[in-house]
Amino acid sequence: MSAQIDLDEKFLTVTEVAERLQIDERTVRRLFADEPGVIELSFPRKGRRTYRTLRIPGSVVQRVLCRFTKGG
Fold first, then answer.
1. How many Cβ atoms sit within 10 Å of the Cβ of residue 23?
2. What pLDDT is stored for residue 6 in this prediction?
3. 11-12: strand order across its sheet
4. Residue 65 vs residues 1, 25, 50, 58, 71: alpha-carbon distances, Å
5. pTM
């Protein structure tokens, strides 16, 4: 399954999302790790842990927030 990516959209780092939501960066990584539309760059190294970089589109942040927001 291929996702359409809008390059004109603002992509946020894990740190930026954590600061905006006032939550821990580890929580952001757990929330967005398998979310469709998030770009994940992995840097595996032999015998060492894999480094992952996430770039999160603003529309994905809104979608996840709507999903976790209670409706009145």
1. 12
2. 79
3. 11-12, 51-57, 39-43
4. 23, 16, 28, 11, 12
5. 0.81
CA-to-CA distance for 1 and 38, rounded, in angstroms?
14
User: What tens digit of pLDDT does each residue of 15-68 get?
Assistant: 999 999 999 999 999 999 999 999 999 888 888 888 889 999 999 999 999 998
Rg (CA), the chain: 13
Distance between CA atoms of 1 and 23, rounded to whole angstroms? Answer: 31
Distance, in Å, from the CA atom of 36 to the CA atom of 63, rounded to the nearest integer, reads 10
SS3 label, residue 40:
strand
Q: Where exactly are the structural domains of the chain?
A: 11-68
In the DSSP assignment, the letter for residue 34 is: T
